[in-house]
Amino acid sequence: MNNYVRLSPRWRKVWSDIWGNKIRTLLVVLSISVGVFAVGMVYSSYLMFQRDLNISFVAASPANASLFTDPFDEELVESIRSLKDIKAAEGRRNVNLRIRAGDDQWRQMVLVAIPDYIKQKVNVVRHLSGAWPPGDGDVLLERSSVAALGVKQGDRITVETSTGRKRSVKVTGVVYDPSQTPSSFSGNYYGYISMDTLEKLDESRQLNQLNLVVEPAVLKDNDTTTIKDVGRQSWKKLEQGGAKVSWMQVNKPGEHQMQGAINALLLLLAVLGVLALLLGTFLLINTVSAILAQQVRQVGIMKSIGASRDQILRMYLSLVGAYGILSLVVAAPLGALAAQAVTGFISEMFNFDAGGLELPPRVVILEAVVAVLVPLMAALGPVWRGTGITVREALNDYGISAIRTKGWVDKMVDFGLGRLKKLPRPVLLSLRNTFRRKGRLALTLLTLTVAGTVFMAVFSVRTSLYSTLDQALDYFHYDVMIEFADSYRASRIEQAVLEVPGVKMVECWGRVSGRMLADERKESETEASKNVYIIAPPVKTQMINPQIIAGRWLLPDDENAAVVNTEVLKDNPQLKVGESAVIIVGNRKLRFTVVGVVQGILAGPIVYAPYEWLAGAVQEAGRARSVQLVADYQDAKEQSSLGRSIEEHLKKNSLRVKNVTITWEQKKLIRSQFDIITTFLLIMAVLLAVVGALGLAGTMGINVLERTREIGVMRAVGASSLDIGKVFVVEALCIGLLSWAAGMILAVPVAVMLSYQVGMLFLKNPLTFSFSFLGVGIWLVLSTMLAVMASLLPAWNAARLSVRDVLSYE
Amino acid sequence: MIGKLLPWLAAADVPRSKSNAVAVELTDVRKVYLTGAGEFVALKGIDLLVDNGEFLAVVGKSGNGKSTLINMVTGIDRPTSGEVWVAGTAVHTLTENQIAVWRGRTVGVVFQFFQLLPTLTVIENVMLPMDFCNVYDRAERPDRAMDLLNLVGVGDQANKVPASLSGGQQQRVAIARSLANDPPLLVADEPTGNLDPRTAEAVIELFRELTQGGKTILMVTHDEDLACCASRIVTVSEGRIARDGYGTVEL
Ligand SMILES: Nc1ncnc2c1ncn2[C@@H]1O[C@H](COP(=O)(O)OP(=O)(O)OP(=O)(O)O)[C@@H](O)[C@H]1O
Ligand SMILES: [Mg+2]
Question: What is the pTM of this model?
């Protein structure tokens, strides 16, 4: 009896409310946990993500500016290093060569040669396994390229040098280069070699990229003017040393090269967290109100024996607080685990190292607030009302709620049900039950509707992404594209290609890369600028089908006309249709008039110019640098092998091929990039669906608990278990269908907004909107299934109760 | 903890009562209910004086206002007009919260349907009023609860939950609970309504013993034989006191 001294009866009552009714405790803890989990997951992912990205970032000491040039000697780097305000300067050599790994497919690989791997100071490449530094004749692969290429340590890779000879190098290790976008995402492969190996690959022992880090002291936050100044000085030095600079890239200090996409994912995460918290709170208000409603009589009894309102208030608030603490204990570790998974996923996407699991105090404090304060606040209203009830009211509550004067909703429902007279009585009962507790119904509907809306909207975003993709891919009318290392006479290329069986149609294009200047001023030439690819197809090309957004396509009479794609526009917002654009190609300054804008999606910045004019302007009249062709066959595999045989044939004709692109492979790569986004969105949808289902299950559970007495009465007058079960299942179905209908209507504007945002963040372009009726269908099936599942357990519980159980039930 | 955070909630001081007052004094008590069909007058001007130590039975036909009347005394319901003095306290002037605290110390209430908390054991149910009103020393409470249970004859059931007790046993527990804070007044609304005649008689016998110990008891009953055991019988008819007498009354 000693324990009564320690724990007084009223706290024992609170305890037995928690422990004695495990299903109810589970329901409450689940609904609180949903919010705690979501908030914890989002906040810890955010922190872990920032931490890991930062660690990778700082360890790599990223360049503030990079200059891409013609080959220069290492001594030149020495003289640049002595410039004022430069903390570190390092040169490296990038060569784009064709390689062949295990399978006999030729691919393009970026081979990076770094003079001193041990003393790296900028854009540091880190050793992961195997040899270090790369030995003579060795290549180390970037970790994301290993799997993508399907090679392992010890394998050999064949490299085709720029002179067309084949050399074999051995894969001896794996490195991690944080400054590269992972292969699976970019479609590029990265290899790291020594200067000796570079020489063996028929390249000079020279560098063509200069990376700079500016003294941190002179950097003002995100301001890039100092970086640009320092960059310009280095530019001058390089050109004095005889190395022609083709362009300079300036990075915002402390900003990842994919910051936009990262922010987009974080935004989605935050939206998810807030939604889950909101829905969890709705659930909680429902559950706490129901608990109070259930305990009205007990509140009355306690009041009748002398409990004051604040004592009862304290008991119930402590009960809620205890539920909160329980939820915190459950949800906090789960949230941390989920955060780790999310960080892992993102880190793979953006190529940084995901660090260990961590549960920082900040997160725990926030979780505690969400777990304890939010429920207390949500409960305050219901508890205040519940404890304010008078003893007479409380004891008059016999468990079957009294008929109140009917509001307009009831009248409408009655009217509606009146017209459905043919319905069986149990179904009528279910439908009437559905509308009985309007507050609860409203919150449940809201929860399910929000979940459904986002679910359907997410599906629409997915379809919109795919239709945008289809539109983007409709661009390609050619099956194979071959780029040459040099320019050749167009007639010679055409003739050679047409000799290969299976080629239906060919078209030769001019193709150069250049950089877009801000304006025509002389000084702009040495400013940071963005790279563009100039493609010069015949004006009446049949190989591509660009979507015109503004202005027009090229016309036969056009001289220096240019059509730019939207990605060029993003980099150079100053461009306008009808105005001029200046592009530096080699050492020529070309002046264009922009005549149109076309959609560019995942295509890179492209400027289209008339073949005749461009070929003349770069002194390559009658010559071409690429050929695109349409194959006789539709089959993807045959197209790939056609590409290979053409390549062989061209080599025999001593035309030097730089790159062969098979369109369907390209399409596959683009699609897989889209899948990353849609997978993320789908996970989001599923999480919300789970929350919605929990909400419905909670409501149905409460409904059963609350109507136990009524069930007993039904039993007593002869209802079978099936009848009783049916009443609840039908009720849940009714709620599910209502929320589905409401969600469908709401989903349209939400989907429009969401796909616009996703488009702008991921593709820098609004998506071509298309509403997903598949999503509507799936949610219909899912919400009915969830409704049935959510009501099954409560219904079964209800059906199991015997008359005696029920009528003695408190 | 929350009490400290929300001190304004804890204010429920009850005004001091007049000393040497009668147990119950009702003057011109009227009760009007507002129903969907208009006003319904349940009590039409009740005057009633009950002395300390009386055992009063309230009888009358169903729906005539017996429960309404004694709910005025316990403060479970409020009069529309008139005054309700119980043990020198003007109940009609107290707030809902003050009434709860006052009732806990002054009035023991026994209901027809026992109304025990289902999740607490029998002895915990009895200790609950002491806990809420913070009377008796913490360490003393279990012993006192046990004494009360023994008094009503269910001491051996102390650690069971109410659901596993018979109706008569539960009613005894409810009576033990109503005595927990040693209130001078006991009010019971059909305490025997759910009991067999033998058990009912035992409960009434217990009440008589309690009045001998100095308590005042108000009891509503339908059973004329039981009513006869009381020292005074008041008959309520259509919201008025139709008869008020000592000894046998015809129903
Ligand atoms: N909350 C209420 N609202 C409206 N009318 C009420 C309310 N409570 C009681 N009444 C009415 O007041 C009258 C007296 O009710 P009361 O409960 O006092 O009767 P009673 O004498 O106790 O009957 P019984 O013996 O059946 O318990 C009844 O006619 C009842 O309909
Ligand atoms: Mg009554």
Answer: 0.72
